[in-house]
Amino acid sequence: MRVRALAKSRDVEGLIEELASLREEGEILSVRASAARLLGEIGDRRATPHLVALLRDPNDLVRTAAAAALGQLGDAAALPDLIRALDDASPLVTMWSASSLGRIRDPTAIEALMRLMESDDWPIRRSAAEALGEIGDPRAASALAELAKKEHGFWQRRIIRRIQKRLRGAS
C-alpha cells in the first residue's frame, strides 16, 4: 500500500499529496483515515493545515483520525479548529478533539472544555476533564470539583480525583 510506504519513509509531502489525491478519487475511507493517522505519528507540523481541513470531512472516521493526529502534532495553530470540532455530531470526534486540546496544553481551550463537562455523555465529560488536567490551569479546579459532586459511579469519581490530584501538582 502506497500510504504505508510513504509513512515508512517518513515522506510527509508525499503523504500530504496522497491524501489530496485520495480525496479526489473517492478512495476508501479507511485509507484516508490511515493517512491522517500516519501524518500524526510522523509528527511533522507541515501536516497541520491538511489535517485541519480533514476536520470538515463528511466521514466521522476521517474526522476522528484528523483530530487525534493534530494532538500528536501538538501545533497550537490547530487550536481554533479543534475547539470548533468539540461541537461535532460524532462523540468520537468530540472526544479526540478534547484529548488533542489537552495535549497542546494551551489555556485558550479551557472555557470550551469546561462547557463540554456539561455533556450528558460520560466519555465526553471524561475527555474534557482529562484535557483540563493536562492543561493544568487552576481555573479548571472548580469545574472538576462540580463534576466530582455530580458523578455517582465509583470509577467516574476515582478518575476525577486522579485528574484533580494531577491538577494540584501542576499548580
Keywords:
single chain, 171 residues, mainly alpha, 11 helices, 74% helix
Describe this structure in words.
By secondary structure, the protein is mainly alpha-helical. It has helices spanning 2-8, 12-25, 29-42, 48-54, 60-73, 79-85, 91-104, 110-116, 122-135, 140-150, 154-170. Helix 2 runs antiparallel to helix 3 (29-42), helix 8 (110-116) runs antiparallel to helix 9 and helix 10 (140-150) packs antiparallel against helix 11.
Secondary-structure content class: mainly alpha
Q: What profile does the largest beta sheet have?
A: none
The first-to-last residue Cα distance is 47 Å
- Tally the beta strands: 0
Helix content: over 70%
- H-E string: HHHHHHHHHHH
Short précis:
With 171 residues, this protein is mainly α.
Which SSEs are present, and which pair or pack?
Layout: H1 2-8, H2 12-25, H3 29-42, H4 48-54, H5 60-73, H6 79-85, H7 91-104, H8 110-116, H9 122-135, H10 140-150, H11 154-170
Helix pairs in contact: 1-2, 2-3, 3-5, 4-5, 5-7, 6-7, 7-9, 8-9, 9-11, 10-11
